[in-house]
Write a structure and sequence with these properties.
The structure is a single chain. With 361 residues, the chain is of the alpha+beta class. Helix 2 packs across helix 3 and helix 5 runs antiparallel to helix 6. The model has no long low-confidence stretch (mean pLDDT 94). The protein binds (3R)-3-hydroxy-3-methyl-5-(phosphonooxy)pentanoic acid (PMV).
Length: 361
Amino acid sequence: MMEYSEFSSSILSELPKEGHITCTSPSNIALVKYWGKRPVQLPENASISFTLESCKTTTRLTYKKKEDTKNDFDFELFFEGKPKPEFKPKILAFFERIEEYLPFLKQYTFTIETSNTFPHSSGIASSASGMSALAYCLMLLEKEINPTITDSQLLKKASFLARLGSGSACRSIEGPITVWGEHNDILGSNDSFAVKFPYTVHPNFEAYQDTILLIDKGEKQVSSTVGHDLMHGHPFAAKRFEQASRNISTLKDTISSGDLDTFIEIVESEALTLHAMMMTSMPYFILMKPNTLSVIQKIWEYRKQTGSKVCFTLDAGANVHVLYPNSEKEQVLDFITKELVAYCQNGQYICDKIGFGAKIV
Ligand code: PMV
């Protein structure tokens, strides 16, 4: 059954025989976290994120119309130039899920060539950038098939499709700030795709910096699928979803007013709450490493000593995202290189900042 008729597809022109499309799409970092979902890929609470700029996936989609259409998906997958059969089941499941919205999928043989700007085993989730890049490429193909699609419809449906690949991926199509999940205070927000933050963004957040400290590049202990599942029957789930909703309301005002102290309070609390949910689930997990905690302590000390507005957030792993206003770029980078890099695995970190979403190359 079609979930949303607004995203049905009409084939208005003859299907193009062959061609290729290349696009990039970035990762994003949630300020209010999405943790807990219900079928199909719908969030238990609204989330809000900064779209990133440098951490991104480039995807080239080559398509060739099949001579005789067998009723099957047909695609090859290359990651950083090499065939990646182990990624194929995830893409196949994605194609199966989105076929009702892109009925031309089985008419083509696809070659998907993809690469990331960040190291594969860095612990930086590649599903957000990877799934949003593929969804965006597919929408550019749909636009060739149906040129009446407007730019805003294209972005909306790309986010909708990306969500069906990996929830948080829907927040990567646009930037600099996006909201996913229905929330009374955010106009147009809904569970099926992300929307661009529809209010004024204070200049304090322009070119906001995110330096990602690679604390532990090991394979993730808990996949996000397992993680989201842990929220079913979690003793604190209902309260957590209420708290996230209140935090969205507060952050909405903060983003418009530029109040960085409140911003810090919400963002750090959200990061620790995400990890608290994992520590208090059954089974329970600790995804932070000793160096994660050392970095957090150092950031708190530095803030106390200097009055800086630097803060941290975390993903479902040990790495630390260090967030700070562009006006503090030099001082904070100096602090990072002198005091924090020592806690990074092989001294590795990535300098990123707020960005603007998927792009055609
Ligand atoms: O999109 P998923 O299913 O990989 O979940 C992502 C969850 C977090 O990154 C931990 C939080 C978020 O909102 O991005």
